[in-house]
Amino acid sequence: MDEPALQLVTDVGAQILRQSRPNKDFLVKSLRKAASALSQIEQSSVLEAARQVEAAKKVQDALKPLRETIVKHSLARHKDRDVRLLVSICASEIFRVMAPEPPFEDKYLPDIFKLIASMFEELADTESPYFSKRVKILETVARCKCWVVMLDSECSDLILEMFNVLFSIVREKHEKSLINDIMSILTHIIDEEASEQLLEVILRNLLKEEKGVPSASSQLAVSVLQTCCQKLEPFVRGFLTSCIMDRDAEGSALREIYHKIILKIFICTPQMLFDVIPNLTQELLTDQVDVRIKAVSLVGKIFAVPGCRAAQNYHDLFVEFLNRFSDKSVEVRVTALQCVKDFCTANPTGAELNEVLSALEGRLLDIDDRVRIQAVAAICDLAKCNLKFIPLTLISQAAERLRDKKISVRKKALQKLMEVYRSYCSMCAEGNMTIVDHFERIPCNVLMLSYDRDCKEFRSQNMELLLAEDLFPDISLLERTMHWVHMFSLFTSMHVKALDTILSQKRRLQSELRNFLALRKKEKETCSDELEKKIKASFERMSASFLDPTKAEECFYKLDQMKDNYIFNSLAQLLDEASLIKAQHARENFMKKIRDRHPHVDFLRLLSAKCIFNIFSSEHVQNILNYLSSGKFGGRHLEVSSIKLLMAIVRYWPSLLKGSEVKLCYLLERNEPYRDQLTETLAKAGSHIFVKLSDIYPILERMCLEGTRAQSKVAVSAIAAVMGSAEQYVFSELTKRLVDSLHSGKNLPTVLQSLGCLAQHSTATFEELDGEITPLLLEKTFQMNSLDDSTSGEETSGCSNSCKLRIYGLKALVKSFLPHHGSQVRRNIDHLLSLLVKMLQEGKNTDSVLSSGNDSSHIRLAAAKSVLRLSKRWDLHISPEIFHLTILTAKDPSSLVRRIFIDKTRKLLRERVIPSRYACAFALATSDCVTDIKDDSLKYMGEFVKDHAREACGHQTSSVRGCSITGLPVYILVFLIHVLAHDEDFPPEKYQDEHIFCHFCSPLFHLIQALVNPENFNGDLVLIADTFSQLFSIFKGIRKAEDAVDAHKSPRLHILSDIGSAFTSSLNQGSISSSCSPGVVLLPSSIYTANTKGITRYAIEEGLVEKIIELFKNNISKVASSLAKYGRSVEHHEQPENTKSKRLRNVSHEQANSLTTRNSVTRKDTASKMSAGMKRKHAASPDVDSDLLGKEFPPIVEHGNDGFEPTMDKEQLLSSCDSVDKVTTLTEKRAKSGKTSRNGTSLKENTEAGSSVTTDSNASYRAKLRDPSRLKETCRNKEVQVLQQIKLFSIVDE
């Protein structure tokens, strides 16, 4: 025993005890000595001494004065902090020395423990100078188990306070020993006396967080729960079960957050909740939506706890959780989807994973767009976590949501899928993944968004930036090129068209920007109004490349007013830089310099991004050529894709091939499979790169002489592109070799192609030898009577080789009159035109005999297409006879010829390379007996009118101003009437049957309908009113004119004009008077002339015109009602229409209905006027006024608009033209699957009816037309057959 220490404690206690009111300083000094002395007394020695009563009594006596001092002077309640601290130290040491006996009486213990607890409260202040002393007190209390005395003295309130204090003071920066001492006190108290009050303290601290991270008190609570799991489990189970089963019961605030408590406990001690978790099934099944939402969220988080296998352990709960994916509440379904990512991450394998993924897949087609959005987000988030883990089909189905009907879904899908694709590209670049088609289809689907017209974010202006800046992460250009090649291998024609739209828009902006910079430079030198107009027009065109054209145009104007040449010089530099790396570096420097000093920095940032080569650059081209030459693609389909990509790039930017000429020539020499495509690439880029013609000429010459026709065409173009000004002699040498081959008759199809293409590129060379070439060409092609009849896979397949040679020869001659680059042709075209007349009339020339009627069809088609091509340049030389014969190809006996001809006409009209008057062909084809040709003709005619409606906007007041209408779509009526008047099928004078006239005039009626159809004018009533006025003007002008080609046909012109005028009046319903028509109508003098003499007209029965119109209306009404009836039967299969479509559809229905119901007064007026006008009489000679022309007004040839919507492939075209049999096959297959015909007849009967309609040629119809007794029956039969065929096709097209 330490006698001096005991004696010192006794003396200090006695000294204080003798003081009645000891001051602070005395107390501090004395207690400090006592505390020091007590710390020197070892408990072990005391315990040894305690074995002897005398020794124990000695210790008690030694400590008695100090104990009595603490009690007597109430030092535990002293107000001074220092005194209280020293008293706490002394008290804790006394507890230690005298343990296990309590050193104070029970009535004084509460004050002592409160004092000690107050010292614990200060432990949070680790910077305090007394922190170590307080730690010592805690350590002493923990080791001597003072709380046992508290429990024995029933100080439950003090224990609860101690719990709260210890949880509140714990900090992350506390040493582990301190935490252990606190933990020791807490766990031992729980072991001795656990209670709900203590559990509440633990749970309250369990949920505490600091900046989203569990606090030290939360970690302490977790440790307590884990250590005392067995003791606390009954209390936890009882509390949480009560919360689940009786949610509305009042109680602790913890009941409001019991879901958080469950999750926290499950994460740290899941075994504690084994009996609680199954009760959550009740919450998943409750009728309260908010409860289900919270329950789904909790259960999802429980199942996502790693390593717990909760989904397997609580199977019934998992099954009900799966059911919530199809819950009737949208919010519940969304909440379930939000749990998918964490669930799949925690459960990477097993049947439960597959079930969750299946439920997720089902939500991609949910009826609510919010659920579909969340499903897409869940799939994409899951993919980003582990691209190798997610099923690839799920990615593909998520990508399909880019076509969702809701814009919000498409936007979210775009955002999330782009994130997935960038992650995928990064992994490929790091070597962690190989290229996978499913991921490469993501940008393919993204491209299809450019067809979306409902959302401006998806327009090509924005898609360009997406492809340039957002598609790829920060990976090398080589990696980007490889992804583009794989992507291109998956492209369809629609993807190519979408990409072409974006690239052409980018090229257009670059071209216009160069033009503006040149104009601006020129403006500094010479300022003029003309230059200002050009600059303004340039601004308008460039602004079209931005999402907000109006704002962009304003910015261009403001930019033009600035005098900072640095900006314009930098833009010019960016335009000329073909390397993406260098362009990006130059752009970064440009933006740094103008960032702080230019008010339009945002616009310049956007403009500079659009003008550089950031989608494709010279590096892309180099990478493609390098891989092709090294054979690293590892597959033929990738090589094909790379070639297609290269051609797509070069088509828009041939200059990007600069620097890669050696590789290109190497591939051209060595790469036989892709030589055609590489030659075509060379032909496009030849003028922009430097290639020695001598290096590649032997290959190109061989292609011109021995290759296919396609090869020879691109080979000649390549020679012309690469040839320098000093190498023009090459064409002369090549021409001579071609003429030699023509003499020998070797490989004539290729030689003819080469000669025709050569004539286009070098007119002078061809004309030098024209005296030898043309006669020889005619001899070798048009005067050969027999060749073997084998066929090839080209567009002339199906005819004999002799027929093919004639067509090839004709094409060569036609090309020789259509040189490139606007070169002048000095030869006379009359001989070619006379040849075309013979071919259009007979299908052969007079000096040869065709092998079959099939050959005749191909000859007529080739001649008609040749006229179309020639009309681009030689329209003034094309006589009315040739024009009529060409247009009447739309009524050719062969359905194949009719189909190809109208498709070709449509293509050329959309490209604006032929005069608009050739649209008459569509009107003639609307009376076709083949339903698909008829329907397509109506569609093409509507497209033609609609495409020209924009031009018509500038002529809205033409009727007031008296301006010319020759450029408007309505003007083709002038040519159609003349064609019909000269048609040999015109009804004979002696037979005035309304059925005959109705059928013959149907092209006129259909054209008038298209010209006034609101859908073709976007509902613009002003344009429609103008069109009615112009129609009346045209009919009035024709009635005052006569036929310039054949005066005997003039009465026909007047009859057709009267019928057309009456039909227009029936559509107009008197809204616009014919007297309001323009005063001037310019009629082409080549086909119309002034009426200077009386003209004899047909004597037509009174009221015949009314009968014709009524019959046409009835036929249209029958077809419309049939289609409407069928449409209603399949209405539930169709997607909802937008408001605009419905409005326009209703307008068109109203127009159709107006054909069947007319005001009786209007009918009587029309009948009286027409009956009077149709009687045989001599018309008075009209005055030579403004209606007559004294000069030629040829149709206007319009140019512009590069793109057009591609027509069907030739194979598809032929299959759709041959007969209805092929369609019937499909129909019969559908019939077998349960889809029967809507009409009462069998499919076989329908097929027979359809076939009879198809094979009924116009020639046979002409024969019937001349026999009026058979005509009515024929027309009725045709009407029934057409209606049956419409139904049949409708089922197929369903």
Automatic annotation (TrEMBL):
Bias (Polar residues) occurs at 1149-1160, 1234-1260
**Annotated spans, Disordered:** 1127-1208, 1227-1265
Tell me a GO biological process for this protein: cell division
The protein's name is: Sister chromatid cohesion protein PDS5 homolog A isoform X2
Q: Which GO terms describe its cellular component?
A: chromatin; nucleus
Q: Name one Pfam family in it.
A: PDS5
Q: Where is the composition biased (Basic and acidic residues)?
A: 1128-1140, 1199-1208
Q: Does the keyword Cell cycle apply?
A: yes
Q: Which UniProt keywords apply?
A: Cell cycle, Cell division, DNA damage, DNA repair, Mitosis, Nucleus
Quote the subcellular location field of this record: Nucleus
Coarsely, its chief localization is nucleus
Q: Does the keyword DNA damage apply?
A: yes
Q: Which CDD domains match?
A: PDS5
